[in-house]
Amino acid sequence: MQSLTEVYRCEIDPQWVDYNAHLNDGYYALIFSLAGEGLFEALGLGAQWRDEMQRTIFTLDVRTRYLREVHAGSTLSIRAQLLDWDSRRMHFLLYMFVDGDSVVRATSEQVVMCIDPQVTRAAAFDSAAQQRIAALLELHRDAKKPVTVGRPLGLR
């Protein structure tokens, strides 16, 4: 987990805690969404890139796994693992940790796509972005991929 890229940090607001005395599931979605933006920034795919390249990023699929409780006042660290990519898409996993321990509290597996907003259609990442994405994948290549990645959702 040490080779993974920290992309977001926050403290849990007491208003985000539900009747079970832990982080409400809707706030996991918010935190992981902001962490995804942090990953895009780390890859140079932030606001400046969007303006200069006339591209944006849409989320295609998200799977959140709730593994351990998170309580009010906790400081969270979100780390990213790039799992795969092609010229238009990225597949990554976000891990949620509470500062001071190494227990994964939740994960968010995501697939995103580069979009040309002028026509709202898939578009390739520019070559410089592709080089940065490839470099991050290489950095994460030795990180163990959880067995849950890509698993279908269901009861049986």
UniProtKB/TrEMBL annotation:
Source superkingdom: Bacteria
Q: Which UniProt keywords apply?
A: Hydrolase
Matching CDD domains: 4HBT
Q: Does the keyword Cell inner membrane apply?
A: no
- Cited Pfam families: 4HBT_2 (PF13279)
Xref: SUPFAM superfamilies: Thioesterase/thiol ester dehydrase-isomerase
Which segments cross the bilayer? none
Q: Sorted alphabetically, which InterPro entries does this protein's record hold?
A: HotDog_dom_sf
Q: Which GO terms describe its molecular function?
A: hydrolase activity
Gene3D superfamilies per UniProt: Hotdog Thioesterase
Does the keyword Hydrolase belong to this entry?
Answer: yes
Under what name is this protein listed? Acyl-CoA thioester hydrolase
Q: What's the source species for this entry?
A: Sinobacterium caligoides
Lineage of the organism: Bacteria, Pseudomonadati, Pseudomonadota, Gammaproteobacteria, Cellvibrionales
